[in-house]
């Protein structure tokens, strides 16, 4: 009863607070919209790529002319060897080049025959042109995968094996945006606790016979509920913008909820350490934004120096992003993301224990 | 061996709502509350009077079990603040000095929240919340979030929150702080009504508030109780001089000299003579002036105020 009243009060306080609601919903929505519009539109962007065909089979020829050559966003230039391609890449005439290895045709043919197979392509790209190369990689990915699914006379099978039907930009960026939305729950989560402490409302509540654990549990559970609501909203938004979840929706959901819980735990720690609401919020943002960048939420993490990656991997968000992308884009199951998932669980458990301990200490002061 | 056990001096007594026993709180080098021994009777309105920083709020915080005493203890409605904090909390309702409400809830929701934190049945809480909102004149704003309320409305709700659990003891910490005179009067009126039903501990640094409302007053300064009693007792026992103020035409130098010879303190400003002494006879002074040919416009005895008491005891003005 007592706990329930506190719980519903916290939910009301959050959803009736325009600022909190803004950060929770409007901010990620705007990001999603911006990216959705930016990437979903029909703007005529075209990337020049090079192809070196080491396979020289009918399949590889058809791949170059019918798949790559048919894509509006690509203009394809065929090179006889990698040296020439590299030369043009250096000059900036092309943004990247693909080397089709020997055996490509056989592999594709195997997949067409509904047998397990791996398509291997070597892509060399211009590292200085970050967004172009990540776009090109994802476009080539998408084209190759749909090429592998093209019907040919020999087999009737159209389903490519262990790859999705169509990868789009939104599939690649949506998990990042959702994780971002959950990451910025750090400032929001601590907000109500810091506010109650600052305004001395917590003190006032502590003049009632309510036990300290009831406060802590009601704060954490109300925020956990908010996290679940957030995840549902984000998944619906992602779906709206055309994100396909190839793997298990429940697994994706679990990854996101754990990520949300980590943010709440961190928010609780910040709330306990900060001297005031203002200081706490500033601290949270100072912490959240760089973390969003180095965790690969916006840009593929592969481009980052290894020490930055190592540092980012200490936090849960790079693991969450990796795992979410693997499930959403590549459709993998739990076995493929078990390490990342374990990191999330350990983080959630650990940060909640620390947060509870610190907040209890703060309540006593 | 002589023990310093305060309980050996004063015994716990059921007729008291609050008894403190050498209640002390030290912050670093500052002794905020310095061994207070206080008995507050059940059913009375006790005003705790003192300048800012005197130790009022620290005392209240200890009585509400928000702050542990450095030494000593207190019994609140028979429960020891050190041993049974939750029983103490269940018996009291507090309206803190800062108006603290849940901003995005409406007054009914705020009241219901506190009612349920006291674990009262929802039906009773609903009923009582409705009544309190009506009593406090907030009915027409009952559905509005309290962040939109004026200072006076928030203050009234702040007091109502202390009453939702129908506590035996109500603690009002500076209930009219920062209110305009009109709102202050309205709050006083309500407290005066409440007085008959509950034991009330009120802290204030408005002397007229204490004078108007309190059955008994404790004056606290630098962490110590420096005076204690009913307003009348304080005024009569502390102030042993009397003051007569006379406004008159044609006060001659001779008359003034005669008065100065006779009384301890005689001051003249703008045809007003203020005579202060331990023994002043109103009739005698008026007759004397009359016989000297002075035309008296008005003459009255100035009653001592709590202000005088306070200045006399602490040597400082109460208001900052």
Give a topology summary.
The complex is a heterodimer of chains A (365) and B (320).
Chain A: H1 2-15, H2 18-40, E1 47-53, H3 58-68, E2 74-79, H4 82-91, E3 96-100, H5 104-112, E4 122-125, H6 130-148, H7 169-183, H8 185-198, H9 201-205, H10 212-240, H11 249-273, H12 277-294, H13 306-312, H14 316-328, H15 334-364
Parallel strand pairs in A: 1-2, 1-3
Antiparallel strand pairs in A: 3-4
Helix pairs in contact in A: 1-10, 2-7, 2-10, 7-10, 7-11, 7-14, 8-11, 8-12, 10-11, 11-12, 11-14, 11-15, 14-15
Chain B: E1 16-27, E2 30-41, E3 45-49, H1 56-63, E4 71-76, E5 79-80, H2 85-91, E6 92-95, H3 107-117, H4 122-135, H5 151-163, E7 169-173, H6 181-194, E8 199-204, H7 207-213, E9 216-221, E10 224-229, H8 231-238, E11 242-248, H9 253-262, E12 265-269, E13 272-277, H10 282-291, E14 296-302, H11 306-314
Parallel strand pairs in B: 3-8, 3-9, 6-7, 7-8
Antiparallel strand pairs in B: 1-2, 1-4, 4-5, 9-10, 11-13, 11-14, 12-13
Overview of the molecule:
Chain A is of the alpha/beta class. Chain A contains 15 helices and 4 strands. Chain A has a 4-stranded mixed β-sheet, sandwiched between helices. In chain A, α2 (18-40) runs antiparallel to α7 (169-183), α7 (169-183) runs antiparallel to α10 (212-240) and α11 crosses α12 (277-294). Chain A is elongated, with a radius of gyration of 24 Å. In chain B, α3 crosses α4. In chain B, 35% of the residues lie in helices and 28% in strands. Chain B has 320 residues and is of the alpha/beta class. Chain B folds into 2 domains: 6-236, Rossmann fold; 240-303, YebC, transcriptional regulation domain (Alpha-Beta Plaits). A 6-stranded mixed β-sheet of chain B has the order 6-7-8-3-9-10, with helices on both faces. Chain A binds chain B through residues 1-2, 4-6, 9, 12-13, 16-17, 199-201, 203-211, and chain B through 64-66, 86-87, 89-90, 92, 94, 96, 98, 100-105, 109, 112-114, 116-119, 122, 145, 161, 165.
